[in-house]
Amino acid sequence: MTQYVYAFEEGQATMRALLGGKGANLAEMTRLGLPVPSGFTITTDACMEYLAANNTLTQDMLSQIETYLEDLQLRTGKSFSTGDELLLVSVRSGAAQSMPGMMDTILNLGLNDVNVERFKQMTGDGRFAYDCYRRLLQMFGNVVYDISGSYFERHLTTYKAALKVTNDQELTEADLKKIISTYKEIYQKVAKKEFPQDPQQQLLEAIEAVFSSWNNERAFVYRNLNDMSHEGGTAVNVQEMVFGNRGDTSGTGVAFTRNPATGENKLFGEYLLNAQGEDVVAGIRTPLPIATLEEAMPTVYDEFVRVADLLEDHYQDMQDIEFTIENSKLYLLQTRNGKRTAKAAFQIAVDLVNEGKLSKAEALMQIDPKSIDQLLHPSFASAALAYAELVTDVGLPASPGAATGQVYFDAAAAQEAVQRGEEVILLRQETSPEDITGMSISEAIVTSRGGMTSHAAVVARGMGVCCVVGCEQLSIDEANKCASYPNGQLKEGDLISVDGTNGAIYRGDIDKVPTEAEETFQTMMAWARELSDLKIRMNAETVNDIKTGLAFDAAGIGLVRTEHMFFKEERLREMRRFIISNRQTEQDRALGEILGYQIEDFVNIFSLTKDKPVVIRLLDPPLHEFLPHTEQDVATLALQLDVAQESLARRVSELTEVNPMLGHRGVRLAVSYPNLYLMQAEAIIRAAATVNETGVNVQPEIMIPLVGMKKELSLLREAITQHIDDLLDELNVQVDYTIGTMIELPRACLIADELVDDADFFSFGTNDLTQMTFGFSRDDAAKYINQYISDEILPLDPFQTLDVEGVGSLVKTATELARAKQPDFKLGVCGELGGDPQSIEFFHQIGLDYVSCSPYRIPIAQIAAAQSAIKYATMKEKLEV
Ligand code: PEP
Ligand code: MG
Description:
Largest sheet: 8 strands, mixed
Strand content: 15-25%
Bound molecules: phosphoenolpyruvate, magnesium ion
Distance between the termini: 46 Å
Radius of gyration: 32 Å
Helix content: 40-55%
Oligomer: single chain
């Protein structure tokens, strides 16, 4: 018989897939002898079977739940129905991968109209007993009967306002009884249901609701945003309640063993006295820093520090711990590897290696390559800040970055604005899981309430979105779409700038500067390079981009797109002269001018890259891209080139193609105009010879694009080689050049063994290869690809992550064909996928030599390459270091 339920004593950390992260860690902490309230976990398998059976708990599940419930009652000496001690439990979800705020929690389950009185007698505190009951009604109504939390909150707020009290603690037992009775009316009115009085029924309905919540919309959106599978299901944890709301010697909190924003090795967290768990996470009351617990309850604090150290050592990673203190006794409710900013991730990983707790390889595996983007976020220019108008600087810096956008007060309005092309900042009192889509598309999120562990803070950090929380000086009126602060007002659409690194908010747009890489970042990158066998190059042609790439230690340039060098006016004019003219002398004159410009371009590049290899791709785009498109432009160009307007217009129309991406481009241009490529090859060699005079040995790798046939390549290679050899003779110098081709047509992949004969290297152009394999226009496909993904026709956008099945298989075929003929044949990738971690793993596995990506993606690619080498142990001898 399948085991659907496990007592905490029966599980362990490795059973995460079955017990969910929370359940597996509760079990592990129980095994470690830590103070964890008793309980059991219903498995993720049970969840998937429940969902598959049209939301029904099977007989097997029901009887196992009953057995484990009886066992829990025996172990705790408490009971749902009889006996002196009343058993109350929490019911909490917990998937294999943590999904903060996505799934649901119910506390105080087991209370009803009758036993609440018994609970009052047991605890000697009527206010406390009825407050627990009030909370149960609220959570149960929300999670199980789908009654919006705002119905309950609104009534509570109105009730408190009428009494002129602000704190829940000021409500008396009599007040709470009245609130409970109104809550029951809300059940009737909104859900047309009664609150179930039978604790057993409460439990079963709660379990079903948590299982069903796996498929609720916000969970679905969260998994899509984080590339998580929809298959896993959630476990349910049923655990004996401990109460943080039993007065001032009780409390509840969340703490990280290190600072999740900076990585500093110091306990970091918050707690609230006399409160239950959801009070901290929901951000309704602003919690106290954990350090103040040392004074408030020194013994509990010492115990917490001991446990935190032990858990961090045990898991060898920074922990995020939820705890409750009941009558001065500490209980642990959860531990997990803490979410952190990229900056903190680097700091923590390097510190753990220096503390001897992790090897370099283990530390590298802790980094999420995609989070590195966050680290490279810009910050505000200090000169610009000096003149900026401050809105407030009291907010908590929850997720770093510097962002500017227009203010919106609800997630739906923010989404609409983004669709109109605006950049937005979401301003809310606090966020809730319903806001998740709006949060993900915002440049920044600002909340007036909540601490560093509030929903907004946790989710924004996870998404890498800039975020400031707890901005108490902002009084936000969501209904009227405005906010006031001590010196002014903000209304919908106003432009503000948010500093997620120090918590300040300014009016207007502020200049930004790129981040300086920190020492820990450099250290990790050096380790990543040391442990990688795949090299990382950059796609770059401007001086700025090349300098950025070199600052990230790129192994060279994997793609110089020479057409990008033709957009300056005088170059464009000469290029146009070349295309338009039918006379050889005119063409030669134009090419002569362009040659001069190109030599200058390549000298600039080689002077920066020195001995590093540089792939220069000869002209690729369709010729008509260089032509004037409006009548006015044709008239102006006719004047400039001194040709008749009609003949120019005719030439333009001759060159215009219906399908330019499948048109007269790449090597096809050179078949028609070989001089174009010869001119470029000459410029490369002359520039290399010039820079070589400074004592370096430039490594130009000349690349011919869009080859699909053996003869195309052999003809061009021969012509270029001849031209270069003549030139080298003439100059009487030596240049170490090679000639290779891009592989970006399916046909080229299939005849790779033939192309090898005429190439020194291949570089896969995965942008065109994806376009040509799917027949998706790379410029238009975005319009329908999202629907393909949501309808599960495609798992991911193949222009962003390699389609292993189709495009990947072509790349692999070409690799095998090439290497079968020449085992050391040099292979790289220079399409966008060269910067995507998942794709990089594939390219590494099939044995490519390098990937090339835009300069800011180099660190991401470098970490991904190291992780792949570690995962597949291709650098075995270095891994133990
Ligand atoms: C490619 O096709 O992948 C490539 C790198 O070339 P481009 O994007 O310039 O067409
Ligand atoms: Mg291409």
